[in-house]
Write a structure and sequence with these properties.
alpha/beta; TIM Barrel
Length: about 300
């Protein structure tokens, strides 16, 4: 069944936003890695990046509207030349800043003080760590990725992250390494915490588990392995109506590297812009209209409503 029809059958009306609590900004697709499951298909050869003018517009939107959280993503967002300016300005204006990092970026040239920068600006870190064993992580991200990730986590712990302070939160993200859904988030979080503490003395606040989205590089893999139809069926069969209330798209706006507005980062990659009755660019940001907008959906949305969902 088409996703939009599924929603209509359940609640009798299309999916709509419930506000804009979070401004999620993808500031570029360039990355120091090329992970197999990356929905952005990010990599070292990407040249899309948010310019200074658009960054200033994002800061204006934060200043002029009742939005307290800025969620910065990429690629590796740290590779954008205006990244630190954006973080610093938003943080100093009292906004809660979240950065989604791959951890290995800490060891690229010019990033030696990145952990200290995050600490100084009280940035909440959401760090991707596909698993807690070296073989699994390196298989997905490349040889040496796990070792670098562990070193980065230890550095963050030494600066007080996950040490009890509310302004130094460190959360991890698990993505399945293949065409299967994530196990129970609570159970897997317990496993991560136990194993990382026992083996490396590492602590963190919480773990997010997400299904791999059938877009970008992961979709290419599904097609090449002739698993696309099977995986889509698996996502659809795992549809959980209880996830609808907490879907991320209902409380955030995603801003692409060029300033275009989207309901989520996934729609951005697919080029699915906002409903035609909504502003299409961050330059025309209208809080009230966007807070009650009709959300653009397609079949990939089953990835956010499968099992535990993407809440």
């Amino acid at each position: 069944m088409k996703f939009k029809d599924r929603i209509l059958n359940i609640q009798g009306q299309p999916l709509r936003a419930k506000g804009v609590d979070i401004l999620q900004v993808n500031i570029g697709y360039k990355c120091n890695m090329a992970c197999k499951h990356c929905h952005v298909a990010a990599g070292p050869d990407k040249n899309q990046e948010m310019d200074r003018e658009t960054v200033e517009t994002v800061l204006d939107v934060l200043k002029e509207n009742d939005i307290n959280c800025l969620d910065i993503t990429g690629g590796a967002p740290e590779l954008n030349p205006h990244f630190r300016y954006l973080v610093g300005k938003a943080s100093h204006s009292g906004k809660h800043v979240i950065v989604r990092t791959n951890l290995t970026i800490f060891f690229e040239e010019g990033m030696e003080d990145l952990a200290e920068f995050y600490s100084m600006n009280s940035v909440e870190i959401i760090a991707s760590l596909p698993y807690y064993t070296e073989s699994e992580v390196d298989r997905v991200r490349g040889k040496g990725a796990f070792e670098k990730s562990i070193r980065a986590l230890k550095k963050l712990n030494s600066l007080g992250y996950a040490g009890g302070s509310s302004d130094k939160k460190l959360n991890l993200v698990y993505n399945p390494s293949g065409t299967f859904l994530a196990p129970s988030q609570g159970t897997l979080e317990d496993d991560y915490k136990r194993e990382l503490r026992k083996r490396f003395g590492i602590t963190f606040n919480g773990l997010y588990t997400f299904a791999n989205m059938p877009i970008g590089r992961f979709r290419e893999y599904l097609i090449a392995s002739k698993n696309l139809e099977k995986y889509m069926d698996e996502l659809e069969d795992a549809f959980n109506p209880l996830t609808l209330e907490g879907l991320m798209c209902r409380r955030l706006i995603s801003i692409g590297w060029d300033g275009t507005l989207y309901d989520c980062d996934f729609n951005q990659i697919l080029g699915l812009t906002l409903d035609r009755d909504c502003p299409q660019s961050v330059k025309d940001f209208d809080y009230l209209r966007l807070s009650e907008r009709l959300i653009t959906v397609d079949e990939h949305c089953y990835g956010c409503t499968a099992g535990q969902g993407s809440t």
